[in-house]
Amino acid sequence: MDRRVTKKGDDGTSGKERPTLKTLAFMTGLGVTTVSRALKDAPEIGAETRRRVQLVAKQIGYRPNRAGVRLRTGKTNVISLVLNTEHELMSFVSDIIYGVTEVIADTPYHLIVTPYSRSQDPLDPVRYLVETGSADGVIISRTQPSDPRARYMLERGIPFATHGRTDMGLVHPYHDFDNYAFAGEAVRYLAGRGRNRLALVTPPVGLTYHGHTVAGFADALSEVGASEVPFNTVSIDQSIEQIRMRTAQLMRRKDRPDGFVSSAAAATLAIVAGIEDAGLKLGRDVDVVSKQSSELLHLFRRELLVVNENFRLAGSELARAVLGWIGGADPGTLQSLSTPSEVLPYRG
Amino acid sequence: MDRRVTKKGDDGTSGKERPTLKTLAFMTGLGVTTVSRALKDAPEIGAETRRRVQLVAKQIGYRPNRAGVRLRTGKTNVISLVLNTEHELMSFVSDIIYGVTEVIADTPYHLIVTPYSRSQDPLDPVRYLVETGSADGVIISRTQPSDPRARYMLERGIPFATHGRTDMGLVHPYHDFDNYAFAGEAVRYLAGRGRNRLALVTPPVGLTYHGHTVAGFADALSEVGASEVPFNTVSIDQSIEQIRMRTAQLMRRKDRPDGFVSSAAAATLAIVAGIEDAGLKLGRDVDVVSKQSSELLHLFRRELLVVNENFRLAGSELARAVLGWIGGADPGTLQSLSTPSEVLPYRG
DNA sequence: TTGGCAATCTGTAACGTTTCAGTATATTGA
DNA sequence: TCAATATACTGAAACGTTACAGATTGCCAA
C-alpha cells in the first residue's frame, strides 16, 4: 500500500554513481542475470548479446564491485604477503613486493601486507587470514623445515607459496634460492684463491635455508680439502654491532679464518668492519664471498666477492605460484629454484 | 507452498562455519538488528543485553564479515600505500610499510600496496582507487609542489596523506622530513670543518623536497659565505654508475668541490666511489654529509658524516594522519615535520 | 482508565553479485 | 502435428551487514 520514497527500481542511470550490473541491465534492456553471465562468457548467452553487453560495459567503464563478488562467492581477489617486521636489516622486502605487484598488475588481485612482530607466534597472522577468509592466497617467508604455517594452510586447503622450501614430506608451491649451491660455489672459489680456513656466516638457525647453506658449505669443504673455522655465535639476523664485535674477536685469534662465506649483505658490512677492526686487510689477509640483493657491496669494498640473489624475481615467482594454485594447477608443478650466479669479483 | 530444501532459517550453529550476526542472534535469542547494535554500543540497547551479546561474541570469536560491511556501508577498512616500483634504489619502502602496519595493527584496517611504474601517469593508481572505492584512505609519496593526485583526492573528498609537502595553497595531512634544515645543517657543519666549495646531490627534480633542499643549501651557503660548485647533472634517482661517473669527472677538475651534501645513502655510495676513482681521499680532500635511513654509511666509510632520516616514523605518522582524517579530524591538524638529527661524525 | 512516552527490541529492505530453478521461443524428430 | 529438446533469457534468493520504520512493554500523568 504505502510506497517508500526510495523505491527499488531505480536504474542507476542517473548521476555519477558507479555503474553496476543493474545499470548495464537497464541500458541493454536485459536482465541482470544475463548481463552477469554475458560478462563472464557463459556459453548459454547468444554471441551477439555477449558482444553487445561487453561493449557497453567497456564504454561506461563497468568494474565489478569487489564487495558484492566477495560476499556472494567468498572470492576476495586478494593475495597476502606475510612479513616479519623486525628481522631482515637490509630489507629485500621492497623487491619482493615489487616482484609480486608486477605479476598481479594485470589481474584483479590486490596485495595486502600482513605483518607480525617478533613477539608473536608466526602462525598468528596466517590463522587470522584463514579464519577471516581475508585472502585467496598467501605468501610466507622465513620458512622452516617443519613449518606449522604450511601445515596449517595445507589442512585448510588455502593456496599459498613459501619463500624457501620445507622438509615435511608435504608438497606445496615454493620459490627458493639454491643456497646449497651458493655455499658450495663460494667455498670452491675461495679454495681456488688459496683460502683453506673458512668461516660461515649462517642464515638464522631454524630456517630451512640455514640447513641448506650449512650442508653446501660442509660438502664443498671436504670436496676441496679445506677446513671450517667455527663461527656459530653469529648469524645474519643479529645486529650489526654484535656481528662486528664477534668478527673482530675471531680475527684476533691466531687460528683465524682466511675466508668468509656470508649469507647476507648487511652482515657482510659488519664482517668487513670487524675484520678491519682487527687490523687486517680484505683481499690480502682474508677474502669474503657474500650474497647481495643489490649492487652495493662492490661499492663498499672492491675486494668483496659477490653472488647476486634476485628478490624481485622471487616475488614474481611466488606470486605466479600462488595464482597458479588458485587457478587450479597442481601445486607440485609450482615450485622453482633459482640458481646462483657465478662468484663475481670486482670488475672495472 | 513448496518449501525449498535449503531454507532461509538455518541458524548457522551447525558445523564449523564462521559465526555471523545470525549465529549470535540465535544463540542469544535476540534479533540480528539488536545484536548488530549491541556490538557497536548503540544507546538504545539495554546495558545487560549489550554485555551479554558482547560476551557471547567474544567467546565464539565473532568477527564481522568485511564484505558484508563493505557492501552495506561502503567502508572498506583498507588503507592503500601507492608506490612507484622503479625509483628509490636503496629502498626505504619496507620501513614505511612497517611504520604503517605498526599503527594499523590494532585497528580493523588492512594495508594494500598499489604500485605504478615509470611509464604510467602517477595519477592512474589514485584514480583507480577512488573510482573503484577500493580504500578509505590513501598514502602517496614522491609529492610534488603542485600535485595532481592531492588535488584530485581533495576534490573527491577521499582522505589521504602525502609523504612530503605540497605547495598549492590547499591544506591536507602530510608528513615530511625537514630537508631545508638538513641541507642547512650540512652546509654549516662542512663550513665548520673549513670546507667552502660545496656541491649538492639533489633529490629528483620536480619533487617538493628538491626545492626545500636546494633552498636550505643556498641559504646556508650565503650565511656561512661558502660557494656552490654546480652539480646539476646529478640527482639521487639516477643510476649508481651515472652518479659515480659524473662525480669522478667533477672531481678531476681543478675547481672541484671540497664538500658534498647528499640527499640519499645510495647516491652517497656512488659519490664516494667517484671521489676515489679520481684518486682523492674522503676526509682529507673532501667531506661528505649524507642522509641515511639505516646505519650503514658509517660502516661503508668511517669518514662519512651522516644525518638520519627515520622512514619507519614517517610510515607511522602518515598512517596516523590518514586514520585521523578518516576519523573526522581536521586535516590541518594532521601535519608533521620531522627535524633532522645533528650531523653525526664517526664515533668509536 | 486512558493516552503518552521512553526504553528496548524486531522485521524488512538494501548494498552488488552469482546461482538456482524456471520460462519463453525456436528447432528438431517422428 | 505434436512432443521433445535446445537456445536464450529471467526473477528470486542468498551471501552478512546496517538503516529505517515499526512494534511491544512498562510506567506515569491526567
Summarize the structure.
Two copies of one chain form a homodimer. With 348 residues, chain A is α/β, with parallel strands linked by helices.
Write the layout of secondary structure elements.
The structure is a homodimer of 348-residue chains.
Chain A: H1 21-28, H2 32-39, H3 47-59, H4 66-73, E1 78-84, H5 93-104, E2 110-116, H6 123-131, E3 137-140, H7 148-156, E4 160-163, E5 174-177, H8 179-192, E6 197-201, H9 208-224, E7 227-228, H10 240-252, E8 259-262, H11 265-277, E9 287-292, H12 297-300, E10 305-308, H13 311-326, E11 335-338
Parallel strand pairs in A: 1-2, 1-3, 3-4, 4-5, 5-11, 6-7, 6-8, 8-9, 9-10
Helix pairs in contact in A: 1-2, 2-3, 5-13, 6-7, 8-9, 10-11
The structure holds a DNA duplex (30 and 30 nucleotides).
Describe, in plain words, how this protein is organized in 3D.
- The structure is a homodimer of 348-residue chains.
- Chain A has 348 residues and is an alpha/beta fold.
- Residues 1-10 of chain A have low confidence and may be disordered.
- Chain A has helices at 21-28, 32-39, 47-59, 66-73, 93-104, 123-131, 148-156, 179-192, 208-224, 240-252, 265-277, 297-300, 311-326, and strands at 78-84, 110-116, 137-140, 160-163, 174-177, 197-201, 227-228, 259-262, 287-292, 305-308, 335-338.
- Chain A has a 6-stranded parallel sheet, sandwiched between helices. Chain A has a 5-stranded parallel sheet with strand order 7-6-8-9-10, with helices on both faces.
- In chain A, β6, α9 (208-224) and β7 (227-228) form a beta-alpha-beta unit.
- The first copy, chain A, is elongated, with a radius of gyration of 27 Å.
- The interface between A and B is large, with 47 and 47 residues.
- β2 (110-116) of chain A pairs antiparallel with β2 of chain B, so a sheet runs across the interface.
- The structure holds a DNA duplex (30 and 30 nucleotides).
